[in-house]
Amino acid sequence: MNITSEELLKEARALEPQLQQWRRTLHRHPEVGFDLPHTKELVKKALTEMGYEPKDCGKAGIIALAGGKKPGKTILLRADMDALPIPEDSGEEFSSEVPGKMHGCGHDMHTAMLLGAAKLLKAHEDELEGTVKLEFQPAEEIFQGSPDMIAGGLLEDPHVNAAVMFHVLAGMPLPVGTVLVPGGGITMASCEQYHIVVKGKGGHGSTPENCIDPITAAAHIHIALQEINSRELKPGDVGVLTTGRFEAGAASNVIPDVAQMWGTIRTTDPENKTGELIRTRMTEIAQGVAAAFRCTAEVSFADYCPCMVVDKPLAENAMDYMTELLGKGAMDMTALTGGKPGGGSEDFAFVSHEVPTVSMFIAAGGPEQGCCYGQHHPKVRFDDSILYEGSAAFGWFALRWLYDNAGIAF
């Protein structure tokens, strides 16, 4: 390999103005779910100007290929593109210009980083011992983008042999630019949405005897569901059941017809048997408690995302490569987690159940940089001085892994 890690990092740093421009343009114009016309236009235009031939994949995804001039394996590099349906209150001068939408998870950072990596890889395309597939993914926040792109042929033509993602972290007291590498195994929880609709009989608040109050039933259901964790799961099983939204009625003196609850189920069981138990018991408890209060309950589940499984050999590669690139800027994240999975979820997990995968994190600012809030908070801020490191990390991982798998000494 002709390029060294120091040279690649230097080339990436030279891209800083462009990386920041891409990121801040995306940040000003956030789009959510699969509805990403302006984001896709920016990405496709940038890739085309670099010499790529970007192609659509699935409902709103984009893929592009680097290398392929030499025989070898294929590595997938992924960035998600979608924002969150929340208003921004970060105070950034480049804050969202779209009411009710915000890049509050850093996907604008990921997209800019992968575009930077695309530029680096195109410049060193003759050195690629195989193929790099660049993936720009929609709808991560609703856990639908990854399975949609897989169904659209993401992992074939050419067949993907390994997959890599980075996710920025805000609000953590870590040196800016530190890359956290997992040790392997299950690193993130599964997630599934649930919706409970409790139906009663509405009426005037002065005559409760003529009504069937769904709020009372729903409140008892909410409390009863806590029994699943405390009395039905084994002590070693991880199952987190959260009701994050509870709605009923529109007036203080009216008993409504319906009360509704929405929430999530998270587990670290790759076979999802714990999730199946929770779903079964949720349905039985909700319907049984509702019946006790003369109501009915409908329970539905949607948007399942499996737990993230990190391939241990690929994680070992990641630690080596990131240490080569960043020195002490690479950290084994088991020192922070104790080797236990995190409770967050990520839809790239679908890919991790198909091909060897590694998901890493990059510290993108903490309290010292004025980044005091975490992901998904309206005030979250990200230090985009780390963009060039992210681009170099993507590029170096691809170059090194392809060399290793071609049997060429580094």
Automatic annotation (TrEMBL):
<protein>
    <submittedName>
        <fullName>M20 family metallopeptidase</fullName>
    </submittedName>
</protein>
<dbReference type="InterPro" id="IPR017439">
    <property type="entry name" value="Amidohydrolase"/>
</dbReference>
<dbReference type="InterPro" id="IPR002933">
    <property type="entry name" value="Peptidase_M20"/>
</dbReference>
<dbReference type="InterPro" id="IPR011650">
    <property type="entry name" value="Peptidase_M20_dimer"/>
</dbReference>
<dbReference type="InterPro" id="IPR036264">
    <property type="entry name" value="Bact_exopeptidase_dim_dom"/>
</dbReference>
<dbReference type="Pfam" id="PF01546">
    <property type="entry name" value="Peptidase_M20"/>
</dbReference>
<feature type="domain" description="Peptidase M20 dimerisation">
    <location>
        <begin position="194"/>
        <end position="273"/>
    </location>
</feature>
<dbReference type="Pfam" id="PF07687">
    <property type="entry name" value="M20_dimer"/>
</dbReference>
